[in-house]
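forwarding from the other thread:

> can someone predict this with heme C?

sure thing
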Amino acid sequence: MSRTRLLPIALLALVAVASFTAGTVTRAQAPAPGATPLSRTAWSDTARIYSEEQAVAGQAAWTKVCAECHETVDVTGADFKTKWRGQSVFALFEQIRTTMPDGNPGTLSREEYAATVAYILKLNGLPAGEKAMPTDSASLAAFTLDLPAASR
Ligand code: HEC
């Protein structure tokens, strides 16, 4: 490797060391606002049922529609986890689809509801996979909400 190619790497290393010693933690992917940063090992890695792209779409829908009334802690907090852990993804999807947005339920498409559910899973630290979450009820019923135990 030539010197001109090594220089930027050396600079990067310097910056990394500098920011490390300054106490700043830089993350490749910053957690979404409100997300509880927990170590990945504390979470089930088994059900990668949504895609990153879908969660991003879900975040947009959340910001546009849901954030008017909700903070993300509403779908990540201990109450939420206790209530939904072990239930099917369909149960959550259907609850949201038939009751949200409050006063105006069913106004989003199934794709948009699935995307918001994907975003909620992401907020809860469940990892994205290759494929988008399906939107048909039978497929969704086969997935369990593998939320971690509530910690209070
Ligand atoms: C106009 C206000 C409003 C909007 C907009 C809204 N919600 Fe809600 N949401 C509420 C209220 C109020 C409750 C509590 C209802 C209850 O407990 O009966 C609630 C409850 C929920 C719950 C249940 C929480 C739990 O602990 O089980 C979920 C999930 C949820 N909303 C998701 C969403 C999503 C996703 C959207 C956007 C598509 C959304 N909400 C939009 C007002 C709203």
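Residues 8 and 14 are 10 Å apart (CA to CA). thats all i got for now
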